[in-house]
Amino acid sequence: MFLYSFKMHNLISMQDIKKEDVAEILHRAEFMENVCNFKVKYDKWKNIVLGNLFFEPSTRTRMSFEIAMLRLNGKVSNFAEKLSLTSLEKGENLTDTIRIIDSYCDMLVIRSPKAGTARRASEIAEHPVINAGDGSNQHPTQALLDMYTIKKLKKKISGLNIALIGDLKYGRTVHSLLYGLAMFNANITLISPEDLRMPSFIIDDVKDINKNETTHIKEIYDKDKDVNKMTKEGKFDVIYLTRIQKERFADIEEYEDIKDAYKITKDAISDNTIVMHPLPRIDEIDREIDNTKNAAYFEQAKNGIPVRMAIIDYLLENFYKDKK
Ligand code: CP
Predict the structure, then answer these.
(1) How far apart are CA 172 and CA 112, in angstroms?
(2) ∠93-98-99 over CA atoms, to 5°?
(3) Which residue has the least CA distance to atom 5 on ligand 1?
(4) What pLDDT is recorded for position 260?
(5) CATH topology assigned to domain 19-137+304-319
(6) How many whole angstroms separate alpha carbon 276 and alpha carbon 14?
């Protein structure tokens, strides 16, 4: 009998990742918080070089990967501040670019506006590849830091009532998060305008993969429904808001028509609800919520460092063990 023995080397989609791998990464992230706070010294990856390739704007993901690697005592090379200064401008294709950077670095982190780019890079590169967001497809490292934040603040994921709200069609963070939450038996409510519903193929896939779990997924979709009333009545443990992804709309009028439909006010938040958002936000969250105990989005962004340290650590460890 053939036994699959290779460990996880790449992180491309939450669709591929096993529950044990998620649990291990979340566990390592707790340890990495102590490394960040200088309580523990950890320099296993000293002089290992991470290549950061961002073909789309980013503040949190790019910087937190860079800082995560520096906190692990590794080194970072950023592909370019401007793509116009690279040889892609001269017509070099992405395959050659990945092959060359893979030969310079020990690990690649890639963000692209095109779905599937990170997976393609993982097929070209010999070293571990991490998807830092590919078009409106997946953003698995965000999902892991979201899950870490929920677990840290609510002490569990299983059995929690969690609402994912806003642009569920184009929002890659919620695509990834749905896979992750379903693995851990959360009760999930998807709330969106009808035109921005979670793609049905994702819901079907999540249900299929997790058919042995007790997750429930419910959908509410209507632009004219009062999202604050739904949030108040839902008494959710977690509400996770997303930005309407202007850059993904082919028709800007469609965006203008929908953009203000999903704004959460302070009154809609129950006492024990935590409010999350992958950021950047536009107007989805009433700024008055920022100074309440319910606001979890700044802590969430901060958790990006220990969680990305844990991801780097786990993938490199698996890679070098299997290489022996
Ligand atoms: N949440 C997130 O991916 O943020 P950035 O686009 O700033 O990386």
Answers:
(1) 12
(2) 100
(3) 58
(4) 78
(5) Rossmann fold (3.40.50)
(6) 19
Choice from 131, 142, 145, 146 to test ligand 1 binding pocket (greatest atom count within 8 A of CB)? 142
- Residues carrying CATH 3.40.50.1370, the chain: 19-137+304-319, 140-301
For atom 3 of ligand 1, which residue has the closest CA? Answer: 61
Annotation says 61 is catalytic: yes
Q: How far is the CA of 3 from the centre of ligand 1 (A)?
A: 38
- pLDDT tens profile 283-312: 899 999 999 999 999 999 999 999 999 999
Q: What is the pTM of this model?
A: 0.94
Distance 307 CA to ligand 1 centre (A): 14
Residues in the ligand 1 pocket, defined by CB under 6 Å:
58-61, 133, 142, 278-280
Q: Is 111 a known active-site residue?
A: yes
Distance separating the N- and C-terminal Cα atoms of the chain:
23
- Res. 5: pLDDT tops 60: no
Query: Are the beta carbons of 24 and 297 closer than 8 angstroms?
Result: no
Mean pLDDT of 254-281: 90
Average pLDDT over residues 166-182: 96
Cβ–Cβ < 8 Å for 159, 187: yes
Which residues on neighbouring strands pair with residue 274, listed in sequence order? 238
- Hey, which residues does 75 pair with through a beta bridge? 49
**Domain 140-301, classified CATH 3.40.50.300, yes or no:** no
Give buried/exposed letters for 281-315 (b at 16+ CB in 10 A, else e).
eeebbbeebeeeebbbbeebbbbbbbbbbbbbbbb
How many A from CA of 278 to the centre of ligand 1?
7
